[in-house]
Design brief:
The chain is α/β, with parallel strands linked by helices. The protein is built from ten helices and ten strands. Helix 2 packs across helix 3 and helix 7 packs across helix 8.
Length: 316
């Protein structure tokens, strides 16, 4: 919302979607200063004015754009966090961020320095709770030695289960909520995805990669979509869409506090809410899970090293 990373967008539709979400009882909204370099936060702030006491607002810090805003660098130094917090508060039009996340780990800044800066913002009343995003268990250990973490936002969906091995069990043991991003596999699990998607030039999916997995790579996508067809068939047995069953799958994980979905239209909000309320028999879920697991295994075998995933390391 408010950025061009997923191709064309419509601000009026985005605002209407947030209003529909509020009407439907959705209470958590996630954004980041990096999304649209402030425009997403500005839109979110407009949409949530008058509702701050009813919602949990999550935003993120710790990555900075280059001059053209076509690349981002990890930077969690204390002065950057302070500056970005003030910028986010201005864009949102509020005086407090409910949950503030470090967007990506910064290997060039000691985690204890980063977390002490986050505690300072908390003590000043500018943020309510501290969280992280894309942190490993070792990085969470370092962070927790300084402050309490309430959330780790990580990629998790039927076609990306890498966080099941260590991250999710760790979060469950330490009462850290898992915020699952990419619940619909960035569009692949909507049931409407083409084997030859025509991405806009500024759409990040054009690279073929999704956080280290070749999710959109033409060499993998046709086989992946065959598995998605099986998910669609399973969903149809209980009168759900592919996306609804995929969302239910994420929510079946007890450690997941919220399954994030990017809404383009109010109708998509309604569909997601219906998925939350749906009852999916175990055999239907097992059938969909098995098909998606096979596709995930193929993708996982071609995974990129973690050093090649996410924003760049800064050079100074």
């Amino acid at each position: 919302m408010g950025g061009a990373r997923y191709g064309s967008r419509n601000d009026d539709d985005a605002l209407a979607s947030v209003q529909r979400a509020l009407d439907q009882g959705i209470t958590l909204f996630d954004t980041a200063l990096a999304y649209g370099v402030g425009h997403s936060e500005s839109l979110m702030g407009r949409a949530l004015q008058g509702h701050w006491d009813e919602v949990v607002l999550v935003t993120k810090t710790g990555i900075v754009p280059n001059e053209r805003a076509d690349a981002f660098f990890r930077d969690s130094r204390p002065h950057v966090l302070r500056e970005q917090c003030e910028a986010s508060l201005r864009e949102l039009g509020t005086d407090r961020i409910d949950v503030y996340l470090i967007h990506w780990p910064d290997p060039d800044t000691p985690i204890d320095e980063t977390m002490r800066a986050m505690e300072e913002l908390q003590n000043a009343g500018k943020i309510g709770h501290v969280g992280v995003s894309n942190y490993s268990t070792a990085q969470m250990n370092e962070a927790r030695a300084v402050t309490t973490l309430v959330a780790n936002q990580v990629g998790y969906h039927m076609l990306d289960r890498r966080k099941q091995d260590e991250i999710i069990p760790y979060c469950a043991r330490h009462d850290i909520g898992v915020m699952a991003y990419g619940s619909l596999a960035h569009g692949v699990l909507t049931g409407t995805f083409s084997a030859d998607p025509q991405f806009d030039d500024d759409d990040w999916r054009k690279s073929g990669q999704a956080f280290g997995l070749p999710l959109f790579d033409p060499a993998f996508l046709p086989d992946t979509l065959e598995a998605v067809d099986e998910v669609t068939d399973a969903a149809a047995r209980v009168h759900l869409t592919t996306a609804q069953l995929a969302l239910r799958w994420v929510l079946e994980e007890p450690a997941v506090s919220t399954a994030l979905v990017g809404f383009r239209t109010p109708a998509e909000v309604d569909a997601a809410v219906a998925a939350v309320q749906a009852d999916v028999p175990a055999d239907v879920m097992a059938s969909a899970d098995s098909a998606a697991q096979t596709a995930y295994a193929r993708l996982r075998a071609a995974e990129l090293p973690i050093s090649e995933v996410g924003p760049l390391r800064r050079t100074t």
